[in-house]
UniProtKB/TrEMBL annotation:
Residues 51-173, 188-320 form the C2 domain. It is found in: Cell membrane. The keyword Membrane applies. Gene3D superfamilies: C2 domain. The lineage of its organism: Eukaryota, Metazoa, Chordata, Craniata, Vertebrata. PANTHER family: BITESIZE, ISOFORM I, SYNAPTOTAGMIN LIKE 2. GO terms for molecular function: neurexin family protein binding. Keywords: Cell membrane, Exocytosis, Membrane, Repeat. Coiled coil: none annotated. GO terms for cellular component: exocytic vesicle; plasma membrane. This is Synaptotagmin-like protein 2. Its main location: membrane.
Length: 350
């Protein structure tokens, strides 16, 4: 059924009650840092402040240095966040979309106690012009709160493919409220086609030459559709797999790299043994898709298969956060032993 297969043991001492969630491997550390960056574009108190005012900026591309430059000049008539003190402490933040994590965010300094901040700062991105032209610029204004959550003050989104690059002048643009899809974190990253099944201990009968003494979870990663296109040539992608809370090298598996394809076919099966039926309530299969480059890999999206209870072996964990679709998929596998359960699940930023 697949051209490659991996078989590894699920290693976790559930009696110990101290999973090593604080000492993730380097791969998991990179997932955490990237997802934090991705989610920060949605963070903030959206309900308490209405977006208003304008922002003045200019865009330029430095051909010699292959650098995209955002000249942030100033803002006017921003919303007041702290009405009692009549103050806002605004700063400007930018992302290149659709992949916020790849290029990262840039931001200006914070200007305190003003709704008319003056910045005169340049935010820079080292990026090829051809790649830039398939991006969108998201420029947003935020109130800085060092003791709480930053508040969203307004944004503008620029399609760089249709931008007039001969226009290097500073211009004023009205700030708009965050769209409903952005507030809800809707962020299309592609769809994973996969099948899973659970084989309970000893369920295949004594006559079966491969009757597992402990349970097994089989994960068949078939293909992924509509990945983020990071380069004009496509994307060089592969899939990583962990069974959380185990983040050791024994838990880690990955597929081969499929080059220059936003619809890669992996056809890769992974088998984890050492599973008792009760472990299915506390474990979580994390599948993440990455773009492969020489110096560093870039996170594209992922899914987490589990019950989404927020708990693992009685301990609160942030990765037990499966969506309704992911929970339903996992529950169907638990209720149908020895049967392949097929699913088509959207990738998310985790």
């Amino acid at each position: 059924e697949s051209d490659t297969a991996s078989e590894i043991s699920f290693q976790f001492n559930k009696h110990k009650k101290t999973p090593s969630i604080g000492s993730h491997s380097s791969d998991m550390a990179s997932v955490s840092s990237v997802s934090g960056s991705v989610l920060s574009v949605y963070s903030g108190d959206f309900g308490s402040v209405d977006a208003q005012g304008t922002v003045e900026f200019a865009l330029d591309y430095d051909e010699k240095n292959r650098e995209f430059q955002v000249h942030v000049s100033q803002c006017k008539d921003l919303a007041v966040v702290d009405e009692k003190k009549g103050r806002s402490d605004p700063y400007v933040k930018t992302y290149l979309l659709p992949d916020k994590a790849r290029m990262g965010k840039r931001k200006t300094s914070v200007k305190k106690r003003t709704v008319n901040p003056i910045y005169n700062e340049v935010l820079r991105y080292k990026i090829e012009k051809m790649v830039l032209l398939i991006q969108k610029l998201n420029l947003s204004v935020w109130h800085n709160d060092p003791l709480g959550r930053n508040s969203f003050l307004g944004e503008i989104e620029v399609d760089l493919a249709s931008w007039d690059w001969s226009n290097r002048k500073l211009n004023w643009y009205p700030l708009k409220p965050r769209s409903l899809s952005a507030v809800n974190g809707v962020d299309h990253r592609g769809v994973m086609n996969l099948s899973i099944k659970y084989v309970p201990p000893g369920s295949l009968g004594k006559m079966c030459p491969r009757n597992p003494p402990s349970g097994e979870v089989h994960i068949w990663v078939k293909d992924v559709k509509d990945l983020l296109q990071l380069r004009p040539s496509g994307v060089d992608s592969f899939v990583k797999c962990y069974v959380l809370p185990d983040t050791s090298k024994k838990s880690y598996q990955k597929t081969r790299v499929i080059k220059r394809d936003t619809n890669p076919v992996f056809n890769h099966t992974i088998v984890y043994d050492g599973f008792h039926t009760e472990d299915l309530k506390d474990a979580c299969v994390e599948l993440t898709v990455w773009d492969h480059e020489k110096l560093t890999n870039h996170f594209l999206g992922g899914i987490r298969l589990g019950l989404g209870t927020g708990l693992s072996y009685g301990i609160s964990v942030d990765w037990m956060d499966s969506t309704q679709e992911e929970v339903a998929f996992w529950q169907e596998m638990m209720s149908a032993s020895n049967e392949w359960i097929e699913g088509l699940l959207p990738l998310r930023s985790l």
